[in-house]
Amino acid sequence: MSSNNLDTLYRQVIMDHYKNPRNRGEFEGESLTINMNNPTCGDRIQLQMKVEEDRVVDAKFVGEGCSISLSSASMMTQAIKGLSTKQALDMSQIFSDMMLGKDYDDSSFDLGDIEALQGVTKFPARIKCATLAWKAMEKGLNEDKSK
């Protein structure tokens, strides 16, 4: 597939998650809740996770922001459901490496739609948009672990 066709496909995947977000909403009752924002551009997200026995059993988000920020949150919430907290944090490190243009080993995960965000690396100002939900997840799981 040519680079141009791949870019088009990736843009379509990102826009699909933006227009049809997965896991958008809030939990009723108790959940691990993290609020984060990107003061540079105004993106904000509230991530909620249900964590039981060191496993992310469910995740939802609400927020406002650009297509990159919200589609990344949609993709991330899909990807971490069912993972152990360690696996979710490991996946977040892989995503961070991908966003920074570093070599990464994704052999232990099927990144699926998340790979569509690779093109963000061409726009350094947008990397914070793509990583906002992931940083919220890391913060929440690390704080939950320390309790």
From TrEMBL:
Pfam families: NifU_N. SUPFAM superfamilies: SufE/NifU. Residues 10-129 form the NIF system FeS cluster assembly NifU N-terminal domain. Coiled coil: none annotated. InterPro entries: NIF_FeS_clus_asmbl_NifU_N (IPR002871). Belongs to the NifU family. This is Iron-sulfur cluster assembly scaffold protein NifU. It comes from Alkalihalobacillus trypoxylicola.
